Amino acid sequence: MVNRNLIRSLDEEDWLSQLENVQPEEIDFGGEDVAVNQIVEGRVIRVDPEFILVDVGYKSEGTIPRNEWEEGEPIPEVGEMIKVLVEEVEDVLGNEMPEDRGMIMLSKKKAEKIQAWIDVMQHVNEGDVVTGVALRKIKGGLLVDIGVNVFLPASQVDIRRPSDIGNYLGRTLQCEVLKIDEARRNIVVSRRSLIEGQRAEKKKHLLATLEEGQVAKGVVKNIADFGAFVDLGGIDGLLHITDMSWGRINHPSEMVAIDQEIEVMILHIDREREKIALGLKQRMPSPWDKVEDKYPVGSVIKGQVVNVMSYGAFVKLEEGIEGLVHISEMSWTKRINHPNELVHIGDEVEVVVLKIEKQKQEISLGMKQTQENPWTKVADRYPPGTMVKGTVRNLTNYGAFIEIEEGIDGLLHVSDMSWTRKVSHPSEMLEKGQELQCRVLSVDQERRRIALGLKQLDEDPWETTIPAKYQPGMKVSGKVTKITNFGVFVGLEDGLEGLLHISELADHKVENPEDLVKVGDEIEVKILRVDTDERKIGLSRKRIEWGDEQGEDTAGGNGESGSDAPAKSKSNVELKGGVGGGSGPLIKPAE
Question: Are β-strands 275-279 and 236-240 bridged in parallel, bridged antiparallel, or unpaired?
């Protein structure tokens, strides 16, 4: 059945005008006398170099140009009967003599074309399949000779419009007759319609016979970034790029080419949507089937780096088998920001198999495991109490990281920087890049941590010099380092502070300590108590002129004086060491 929608979609005005010079003219077949546009039979009476004379039973002979016979075509002999078309008859006007004759122009070619058209019309109908040779290109398509010239639009040459229809010239083509215009003697044919009809039948048959797991032959018809479309002989299947090879490929063109015949496996059939998923790699055993036997966990193997990402590097162990070396598994000691600091695509590296997940087809690899872990000997090299030299690599809120050898850092906590000074931030005492000496406090080999101490280089002054140097009742001078709402911190020496509680500033009640002292002021105070357990020194300014009898109880540790002493409150609770007032590092670089 002819596809009428297809016929209506063709732009007839675009190509019908191209056929006017190749199709026969209107012919009048009526009447008994010789007339213009009539096909008659005549006898050859003479063959000249340029013309052939033919007697058609008229007043005079007709002439046919000799060039109407193609090169190699046999020339008719005298007396031979041939069919010709009467193209033109010229009477000699004004001459009444019966022997006077007019000129008759004949055409053998046109007679053959008209006869061929008549013959075609007798046995060709719309929807029939015809065979012919593509003769030449015209605007919008091809001329195909099926006995008469018919028009094959470019859009109907193939299922996918070819880039150059000239490639079909000289080829014998089978087409379906789409439309016959008897009035204009034009025939339109379609090769695409015929192929689609044939494919529809094949598709129906294929969908009924194909099964998942079968191996089928096909021809690659199109290639995209995500895969290739393969013609299975009536229906196209998609061969996805991930199903082309067990190994890594960047583009399907690395595996297949257009018009290449390949064998594929049917992976999945969606009969309702008429879609088929194909596989090429599935025709070969998966290298992952015996991966655990070939690459047992802990084995050391060599591979090639095939890709480098921010989180690690992919290493090919064999075709189809790749493993990931995570950035954290590249070095025991080096701090790596990006894997390309150690490896590049194409490098051959030695790795250790850490983990295999066969179902996910994933292998975890390690590079650092091929070398001895330096942390296994850290505890032996740096036992607690060892003196070490290092460089301040980084400062944090809670301490400083000191590199004592390449890749081995120790943590110097703020609480281990000074016996006497309360350090809020390491920058108060250290600078990045500074070299200094520390003592190893502890080593946690499993967690890869070393605790360092700076103050442990010296004896604890709270157990030796401070109790001896600062005793209750002594008068000392110091500089105001910090003022709070509960009192004033006074620096007695570098890093050592005492607390002058607000109640010990003056005999009268003080609302704001800044009304009496300012930061930086040099003041004289009396020591009320020295608490070596809490590492605190209590001070008083109002008792500076009191006699010994008045201040006897100051050694008791409460900082109170008889009935005149303020209520027991914040002076005890808030008594603590403060932050020194200096700026910049207080620790000298290691020599």
Answer: parallel
Strands 62-65 and 103-107: parallel
Question: What residues in the chain have per-residue pLDDT under 70?
Answer: 1-35, 91-102, 547-591
Containing H/E element for 534? none
Q: What is the pLDDT of residues 128-158, one digit of tens each?
A: 888 999 999 988 899 998 888 889 999 888 8
CB 430 within 8 A of CB 436: yes
User: Shortest CA distance to 295 belongs to which of 353, 345, 344, 249?
Assistant: 353
- Written in H, E and C, the secondary structure of 150-194 is EEEEHHHCCCCCCCCHHHHCCCEEEEEEEEEECCCCEEEEEHHHH
Beta strands in 358-472 (DSSP E): 362-366, 387-395, 399-405, 408-413, 435-444, 449-453
Which of 87, 76, 14 minimizes the C-alpha distance to 45?
A: 76
Rounded Cα–Cα distance for residues 373 and 230 (Å): 53
Indicate the residue type of 186: N
DSSP of 207-261: HHH--TT-EEEEEEEEEETTEEEEE-SSSEEEEEGGGT-SS--S-GGGT--TT-E
Instruction: Note the Cα 462 to chain centre separation in Å.
Output: 64
pLDDT of residue 91: 59
Please say whether the beta carbons of 404 and 389 come within 8 A: yes
Report the pLDDT value the prediction gives residue 82, as an integer from 0 to 100.
85
Give yes or no for a contact between 186 and 19, defined as CB atoms under 8 angstroms apart: yes
In the chain, what percentage of residues exceed pLDDT 90? 21
Query: What kind and span of H or E run contains 580?
Result: none
Helix, strand, coil in percent for the chain, rounding step 5: 20, 35, 40
Structure tokens at 561: 């004086």
**What is the DSSP code (8-state) at residue 414?**
G
Rg (CA), the chain: 54
Distances (CA, A) of 231 to 167, 278, 570: 21, 11, 92
Report the 10 Å Cβ neighbour count for 14.
12
**pLDDT of 581:** 40
